[in-house]
Structure to design on (259 residues):
């Protein structure tokens, strides 16, 4: 284990205003090689629910909101360098299913009662949090509470895992989020924004790519969301490869598969 720091990341400036709010941590403990230079392609995998793995150009692997063993989905071998937790409920904080010893980055602290301030670099990625209100009256186990969206900046791309948004973001949250190229958006009438409201929000956010998640494999919920958009791609491969040069122009909805 050693400490390493990196120069500022080149390329995208997703949300420069964030430095006014959060203290930048310029060094974090790492035990993996420093990023290689000259690559620009990022890949994204979806494992179901809100659980994604992002492969960064320099070899860094980050996962988001891993589910627990009892979610019912297949447990993938991930071995990430870092994991972000946007919601302190079992199906979003399943660190125990991950291989290796990842750096755990929580969007909440004090057992989920307070928002954490996250703005750090891990390998070739900058990770920032945006505080949100998550859940809804239909989330019978946990109700409305605090949560976090996470913004990942690498290779000129701004990738947002929006978390369990209970309502569209307000102007302050949008300023912190900044320009988004790829957005993972929750669809659920039970625990967050419904699919129609989520579609309206994505229409205003205008990412180049939006990836629906958390819709419990319900084709009707997905269909309500998709009705809002003209550009829809059903992605059959395990990974979605993206780069700044290959981003689509208008918002394209990419429906990913999982095992």
């Amino acid at each position: 284990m050693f400490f390493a720091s990196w120069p500022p990341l080149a390329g995208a400036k997703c949300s420069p205003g964030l430095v006014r709010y959060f203290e930048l941590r310029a060094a974090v403990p790492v035990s993996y090689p420093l990023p290689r230079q000259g690559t620009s392609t990022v890949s994204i995998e979806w494992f179901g629910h809100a659980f994604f793995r992002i492969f960064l150009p320099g070899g860094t692997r980050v996962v988001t909101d891993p589910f627990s063993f009892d979610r019912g989905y297949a447990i993938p071998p991930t071995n990430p360098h870092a994991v972000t937790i946007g919601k302190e409920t079992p199906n979003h904080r399943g660190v125990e299913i991950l291989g290796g010893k990842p750096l755990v980055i929580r969007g909440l602290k004090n057992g989920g009662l307070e928002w954490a301030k996250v703005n750090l670099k891990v390998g070739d990625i900058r990770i920032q949090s945006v505080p949100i209100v998550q859940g809804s009256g239909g989330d019978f186990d946990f109700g409305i509470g605090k949560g976090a969206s996470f913004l990942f900046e690498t290779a000129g791309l701004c990738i947002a895992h929006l978390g369990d948004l209970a309502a569209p973001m307000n102007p302050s949250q949008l300023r912190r989020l900044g320009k988004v190229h790829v957005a993972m958006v929750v669809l659920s009438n039970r625990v967050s924004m419904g699919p129609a409201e989520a579609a309206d929000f994505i229409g205003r956010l205008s990412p180049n790519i939006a990836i629906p998640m958390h819709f419990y494999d319900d084709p009707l919920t997905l269909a309500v969301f998709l009705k809002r958009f003209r550009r829809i791609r059903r992605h059959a491969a395990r990974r979605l490869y993206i780069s700044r040069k290959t981003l689509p122009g208008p918002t394209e909805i990419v429906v990913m598969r999982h095992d």
In short: Confidence is low (pLDDT under 50) at residues 1-11, 17-38, 137-143. Helices lie at 171-177, 195-205, 219-226.
